[in-house]
């Protein structure tokens, strides 16, 4: 079964990154291959936020829509997405966020496993999914810079951040 995992250090807090990933309605603005997303239902219970969403993904002429259950655990800074319906035989992804450097940065752990029902669709979309997953964390980091401020992220770096800002201005 195809899978992808990455651990990535990002110069935003774990709470900020959790909120960004939990904001699934914004995915069409920046997530690779995501063309649209509609939340069907949302419930809060036992410290968890659970919603069901339809996501349409596409690449060139190929378009597919699938439904997932997303379980957000704000206290644990974890998000689990479980497949409900669509072109997959199996789809599950997990996000976890851990503050490091006193909250000046966080470690993002992203894991996904998937298998298409159709071998043909797997051949058509598999490579694109692999490429997209490699770009996922970068897309979320760029989105965090936009939402929470790139200058603030660079300022957290101290003198190195000031030097980087100066170099960027001079270029």
Spatial separation of the terminal alpha carbons: 45 Å
Largest sheet: 7 strands, antiparallel
| Structural class by secondary-structure content | alpha+beta
| Proportion in helices | 25-40%
Quaternary status:
single chain
Order of helices and strands: EHEEEEEEHH
Low-confidence stretches: 158-171
Strand content: over 45%
Radius of gyration: 17 Å
Number of strands: 7
How many helical stretches? Answer: 3
- Which word captures the global form? globular
The strands making up the biggest β-sheet line up spatially as 1-7-6-5-4-3-2
Average predicted confidence as pLDDT: 84
Task: Considering the chains and any ligands shown, give keywords for the structure.
alpha+beta, disordered C terminus, single chain, globular, 171 residues
């Amino acid at each position: 079964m195809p899978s992808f995992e990455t651990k990535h250090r990002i110069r935003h807090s774990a709470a900020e990154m959790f909120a960004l990933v939990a904001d699934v309605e914004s995915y069409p603005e920046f997530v690779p291959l995501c063309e649209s997303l509609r939340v069907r239902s949302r419930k809060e219970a036992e410290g968890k936020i659970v919603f069901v969403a339809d996501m349409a993904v596409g690449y060139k002429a190929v378009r597919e829509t699938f439904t997932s259950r997303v379980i957000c655990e704000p206290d644990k800074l974890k998000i689990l997405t479980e497949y409900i319906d669509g072109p997959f035989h199996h789809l599950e992804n997990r996000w976890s966020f851990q503050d490091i450097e006193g909250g000046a940065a966080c470690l993002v752990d992203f894991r996904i496993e998937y298998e298409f029902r159709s071998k043909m669709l797997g051949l058509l979309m598999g490579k694109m999914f692999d490429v997209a997953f490699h770009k996922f964390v970068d897309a979320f980091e760029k989105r965090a810079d936009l939402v929470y401020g790139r200058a603030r992220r660079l300022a957290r770096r101290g003198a190195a951040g000031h030097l980087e800002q100066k170099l960027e201005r001079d270029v």
